[in-house]
Structures are given as C-alpha cells and as structure tokens.
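Marked as duplicate of an earlier ticket. Keeping the data here for the record.
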Amino acid sequence: QVQLVESGGSLVQAGGSLKLDCAVSGLTSSGYAMAWFRQAPGKDREFVASISRNAVRTKYDDSVKGRFTISRDDPKNKVSLQMNTLKPEDTAVYYCGADQTGSFYYTPTKSADFLYWGQGTQVTVSS
C-alpha cells in the first residue's frame, strides 16, 4: 500500500521558517519525481516545487523562488520542503505528490501528472 505522509505544518509568524517532510512508503521514492503543491481555502491546488528522480533538477513557482528549497533523501524515502521568509499568502494546506512519468531529469508541475498524494499538512502564517 502506497502512503505519502506529510508533517511539519504549523502556525508561524510572517518572516519565520518551517520545514515540511513527506515520508514515503510502499514505493521506492527514487523511481518518482516528487513535488509539493498547496491549496488555500476557496482556491485550486497550485504547484510549489518539484524535484527530478535523480535530484539533479528542481523547479519552483515564482512566488516561492528564493525562499523555498525542495530536497530528497532517497535512502530514507523522504522529501522535504524548507520554507523561509514565510508570508501570510503562503497559508495553505501543503501536499506532496509522486509522479512516475517523464525522464530522470523531469520536474513535473501539473497536478494531473501525479499518481500518488498525501493527505496534507496545514501551514498558517500570521501577519
């Protein structure tokens, strides 16, 4: 049974930092591109960051570029998102996803491409 379990969400003040983790079980994470998406109330799920299967390439949405860093630890079957200089507009439920399509260098950005999803973790940034 495939499971992606996010953790690390919390309430934080603007300008603060959080690190989200996604623990993967039931599949070998190195066989998948991994990504973080987020969904704010009343809005569609949106792309945040992705990392290729071989961890060589990463891609970020412009809204988080320079503030967020995605990384993966395949021996531990884990993907992380370090979030710095948080803003109130970063408030959302954050989801990790696994995508098996594409090459080893592929960094997916469309939610429809992802086969597996976690249940999400809430990040709230107060002003």
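See parent ticket for discussion. The first strand starts at residue 3 and ends at 7.
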